[in-house]
Amino acid sequence: MYFPVLAGYNPKNSEEYASLILILTNEFETRFQDFLKNSQLFAIFATLFSDDITAVETKFQMECIELQSDIQLKEKFNQSFLLDFYKLYLPKETYPVLHDHALFMFSLFGSTYICEQLFSRMKNTKSKNRSTISDKHLKSCLRISTTSIDPHIDSLLPQKKQFQISH
Question: Which domain of life is it from (predicted)?
Fold first, then answer.
């Protein structure tokens, strides 16, 4: 993780190390304070069957009560991975609010991964060997490198055409 506050900071003694650790601690707390604000939403998502219903947001309460009374779903929750449980066993028709909440929570981490992947590929694409690449070309390279679409080269080529002529 890169902290712009610490760029070029090279501590020489223990007091400077202490101030460096204090800066890192403060930076860590500010970056992750959103997790503390939304801890209830994470708890509903990760521990459906162990939360106190009165502590849950009102929009989730009725569905959580119904869900917690279903013994079969509780067994499925305990026996499967979280993603599999939401994908395979939690019906959207019966639990629309919890289902939408699960989609939102899964998309948080998926979009973070995609962003990290994009920055990593941009760093490789715009290396010192290719530093003259323009922003337009960088955008095109990143679009190609991050797409999930497989090209169908054969369909792009003209049919029945010989591309290399023998001498």
Answer: Eukaryota
Instruction: Read off the DSSP letter of residue 165.
Output: -
**pTM of the entire predicted model:** 0.51
Pairwise CA distance, residues 39 & 119, whole Å:
28
Instruction: Extract the tokens encoding 121.
Output: 């590929």
Tell me the CA distances in angstroms from 126 to 39, 115, 122, one per residue in order: 38, 16, 6
d(CA 145, CA 84): 29
Q: Measured at the alpha carbon of residue 160, what is the angle toward residues 159 and 161, in degrees to the nearest 5?
A: 95
pLDDT-wise least confident of 66-75, 101-110, 121-130: 121-130
Q: Which residue, among 155, 130, 160, 157, has the nearest Cα to 145 in the 3D structure?
A: 130
